[in-house]
């Protein structure tokens, strides 16, 4: 079996300034959906390889929020939050993704330099035979030209980061969890 490459694909809804990545998972759509919408499962795969993710709070509904942290191998702690706009089981999640502090307040990027404070995240889950095609789109919200330029310059890095997360999701799904 051929493994899908983690490459940005054209999305008719996305602009050239959006980051789009798609992956085919060899699992039914409901299982892939569950990995995104179950607090314990999300913590097991979400984040770059080598990080430990802890989901501090989880409220999966429009208007709800996920607050999490990633502990990196070098001892750094990164906080994030998702503010849900749409939850359409098992086909679509839309949320605002951004860095946060330990109290779930919005925070600038911990990496320094310009970066959008918020990214509109759309995750679409589609049946493709016995597998699931998942497409994620990131769109900067209210970003300055400098923040948009930094975002667009990071596409290769984001592809690698999401690809590592999706590799971990593949492993979780293959384990039947």
What structural class is derived from the secondary structure elements? alpha+beta
Shape verdict: globular
Strand order across the largest sheet: 1-7-6-5-4-3-2
End-to-end span in angstroms? 21 Å
What percent strand?
35-45%
Please explain how this structure is put together.
- The protein is an alpha+beta fold.
- It is 25% helix and 36% strand.
- The chain is globular and about 45 Å long.
- The N terminus is likely disordered.
SSE order and pairing:
Elements: E1 19-25, H1 29-37, H2 39-45, E2 52-58, E3 65-71, E4 77-88, E5 92-100, E6 118-128, E7 131-141, H3 145-153, H4 155-174
Antiparallel strand pairs: 1-7, 2-3, 3-4, 4-5, 5-6, 6-7
Short description:
With 177 residues, the chain is α+β, with helices and mostly antiparallel strands. It has helices at residues 29-37, 39-45, 145-153, 155-174, and strands at 19-25, 52-58, 65-71, 77-88, 92-100, 118-128, 131-141. It has a seven-stranded antiparallel beta sheet.
């Amino acid at each position: 079996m051929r493994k899908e490459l983690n490459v940005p694909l054209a999305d008719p809804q996305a602009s050239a300034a959006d980051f789009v990545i798609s992956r085919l998972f060899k699992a039914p759509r409901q299982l892939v959906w569950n990995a995104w919408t179950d607090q314990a499962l999300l913590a097991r795969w979400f984040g770059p390889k080598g990080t430990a993710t802890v989901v501090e709070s989880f409220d999966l509904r429009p208007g709800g929020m996920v607050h999490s942290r990633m502990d990196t191998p070098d001892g750094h702690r990164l906080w994030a939050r998702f503010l849900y706009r749409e939850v359409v089981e098992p086909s679509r999640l839309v949320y605002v993704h951004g860095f946060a502090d330990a109290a779930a307040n919005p925070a600038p990027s911990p990496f320094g330099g310009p970066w959008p404070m918020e990214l509109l995240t759309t995750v679409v889950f589609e049946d493709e035979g016995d597998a699931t095609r998942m497409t994620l789109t990131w769109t900067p919200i209210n970003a300055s030209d400098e923040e948009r330029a930094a975002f667009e310059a990071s596409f290769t890095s984001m592809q690698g980061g999401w690809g590592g997360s999706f590799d971990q999701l593949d492993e979780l799904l293959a384990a039947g969890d």
